[in-house]
Automatic annotation (TrEMBL):
<protein>
    <submittedName>
        <fullName>PH domain-containing protein</fullName>
    </submittedName>
</protein>
<dbReference type="Pfam" id="PF03703">
    <property type="entry name" value="bPH_2"/>
</dbReference>
<feature type="transmembrane region" description="Helical">
    <location>
        <begin position="159"/>
        <end position="178"/>
    </location>
</feature>
<dbReference type="InterPro" id="IPR014529">
    <property type="entry name" value="UCP026631"/>
</dbReference>
<dbReference type="InterPro" id="IPR005182">
    <property type="entry name" value="YdbS-like_PH"/>
</dbReference>
<feature type="transmembrane region" description="Helical">
    <location>
        <begin position="336"/>
        <end position="355"/>
    </location>
</feature>
<feature type="transmembrane region" description="Helical">
    <location>
        <begin position="27"/>
        <end position="49"/>
    </location>
</feature>
<feature type="domain" description="YdbS-like PH">
    <location>
        <begin position="52"/>
        <end position="132"/>
    </location>
</feature>
<keyword id="KW-1133">Transmembrane helix</keyword>
<feature type="transmembrane region" description="Helical">
    <location>
        <begin position="198"/>
        <end position="226"/>
    </location>
</feature>
<keyword id="KW-0472">Membrane</keyword>
<feature type="transmembrane region" description="Helical">
    <location>
        <begin position="361"/>
        <end position="388"/>
    </location>
</feature>
<feature type="domain" description="YdbS-like PH">
    <location>
        <begin position="390"/>
        <end position="456"/>
    </location>
</feature>
<keyword id="KW-0812">Transmembrane</keyword>
Amino acid sequence: MKSLAIVVAAAIPLARFLVGRDWPAGGIVAACAGAAVLIVAVVVAYDLLRLRTTRWRLTHERLELRSGLTTRQHRSVPRDRVRSVDLRADPVRRAFGLSVVKVGTGEHAADGSELVLDPLSRRDAEALRRTLLHQDAAEEPADGPLAELSWSWIRYAPLSVWTFTGAAVVLGALYKVLDSFGAKRLTTRVATGAWEWITAHPLVAVPLLLGVNLAVGVLGAVLLFAESWGHYRLEREPGRLRLRRGLLTTRSLTLEERRLRGVEITEPLLLRLGGGARVRTIATGLGKAADDETEDAAALTPPVPRALAVRVAARVSGTGLPSLAPHPAAARRRRVVRALVTTAVMAAGAALVPWDWARGWVWLVPAVTLAYGMWLAVAGAASLGHALGPRHLVARRGAVVRRTVALDRRGIAGWTITESLFQRRSGLLTVSATTAAGRGHYDVVDVGRADGLDLAAHAVPGLLDPFLIREGAS
């Protein structure tokens, strides 16, 4: 695959160069074919040399890897620090029975803590996974999967803002590709012609473009869901969770349960309106594997019905989510006042617009700001909630993206109490639980002063006591 990408990237500029030198068609084809053969041969030779100079071994204490052509590298990971094993196989590797093994130690890959074996045979990869995680080949999940793919979930795939920007993203990427190949004149001519047609027939062009954009976005979302979450299965093995998914590129991620510090139920607005939600894990050191990877490594489920998301979160965390206590009315009042102040600023700016032709239209800005701000205030205040369960601190917040976090109380390392000037006037504060997992801190926003301090004091008994002054204490 890499060879083909390099061939295409080299062949197009070479063909343009030869056309500019008035080469015959046969000569251009022959030159491009020769360049393609040379590129493929170089890439294959490089991969063979890389494989011949790569060695790995597993001892009783460490997993070691030696690699490098010009600069030799020797990396090793202590076996007792292995926290996750990720197996991946794209369609080409699957055709040859190969897999990539990524061994993580609970830290980010950018820190150099991840060791990658590429490639191993599928059988060797699975055997290495079981060995590193101390799992017997005979061990099977006792109670069946925690969740398994239902293709009816695909109806939630288009419920994303990317659905409405799909065609624009595709056109932007295509424009960059063509521009890099020197086709800027062609793209400019096409764009100019399309714009002239749109301005000449707006009543036909605008609905047509919106419909095409929506159709492309829906199709892309459905295809992406199918490729990413095909064959999805989440199951509990002794002491660990295993997530398997992927239609073309298969992925298998195994996480030790002792690394888990809680779960998060995420409900973006469109998905929430459709009755769906996602479940993410809160685990130590779990994040994107590298800067060039966009997948959410913490995702435990695709978009699923909210009731199922709550059940999966409860089974993963080992306890049900308690009923949430609402926040004081002052929390809503703060948000309403913020919306009104923002609208007043926008209205003052609209009144100062010097152009007469714009005075009628510019008042739409404060009107839209007021409507959106009031919705944001009401929805944001309605989403606020918190509770203290037997094992977890539960907090919910967010209007556009509502997040419900169940954080294991044993994973809380400290507290940050924030009280702004306006919060202090309203008798509110924000309590932030600090942890080594996930985003590093999780907030209970705009909670009553007494309730917030009491919540922190009871969540981790003794941690906050030296900083509290009890009423009635001498």
